[in-house]
Amino acid sequence: MPRPEHPATGADHASFPPASGPTESPWLGILGRSAAGGAATAVLLAAVALLAASPAAGLSVLFGAALVMVFFGVSLLIGHFTGRTNPSGALGLFAVTYAIKVVGFAAVLFLFGTPDWLDRTWFFWGALATVLVWQVAEVLAFSRLRTPLYGDAPGATAGSPAPPRPEGP
What we know:
mainly alpha
């Protein structure tokens, strides 16, 4: 049976840790994690290509990885700059920039052609490995974001009472 000094109203709210707020600008953090994973994969695979094939194979891996990282990095940078001013419009801008990037990268590759030193097989494996690692890192980083579902009052924490509302007419 509860005693007056220990009422049965639940846990003591003073012992709860403070609630953390939403992630302010997640895009650069996601970009950093994804780029670190992609770069580590590219360097490791380039070393394998260098030892197994040739210096051109190692450069081909790095070139393929760099193209992938620039391609995906542009979207996260746009999300960073757009998300601050228009968070709801970021998804639409992602779609538009994706189309522009696909056409732009295809045009660059078509206009410049394939360099003589490029090893197509190692270029493909470097790009593919970087895409896979980048996407896994990006999904993991997105899954750890703290996004509020409801518009709590500023300064409110879990377990604290809501501030009083002004009485109107």
